[in-house]
Amino acid sequence: MNKKEFKAKASQTIDEVPARINELKVKNESAQDDAKSQYEGAIKYLEAKKSDLETMYAELNKASEDKWEETKDAFSSAFYSFKEGLSKISSLFSKPDYRTSGIKLPVFLLLIHTK
What is the pLDDT along the chain (115 residues), one digit of tens a residue? Predict the structure, then answer.
């Protein structure tokens, strides 16, 4: 993928991120109170990852030719981290018993950091 294509794909990714987080917020509305605070913490974690991704996207857009590969790799890493967190949170919501799951936030964050 050339530089122009990569930037276009990165832009599309940045545009889709808020919608994905909002989907989880809607699902969280139906969670029971004890699980809701845990999921809210997980969603805040994802929002922080979104912020990292946006920062890397800004860097990507102003990267010089000699820093392009390094910046592209940093954006890809930030995207992978966001995607992994989103996938793990989404899988928790997709479980039939997510409203009453006993997963505690620190354990959840440990799950996000493992690959």
Answer: 889 999 999 999 888 888 888 888 887 887 777 677 777 888 888 899 899 999 999 999 999 999 999 999 999 998 988 888 888 877 776 665 444 444 444 344 444 444 3
- The two three-digit tokens of residue 70, written as one number: 């390094």
Dist. CA 47–CA 29, nearest whole Å = 17
Read out DSSP for the chain?
Answer: --HHHHHHHHHHHHHHHHHHHHHHHHHHHTS-HHHHHHHHHHHHHHHHHHHHHHHHHHHHHT--GGGHHHHHHHHHHHHHHHHHHHHHHHHHHHSTTGGG----HHHHHHHHH--
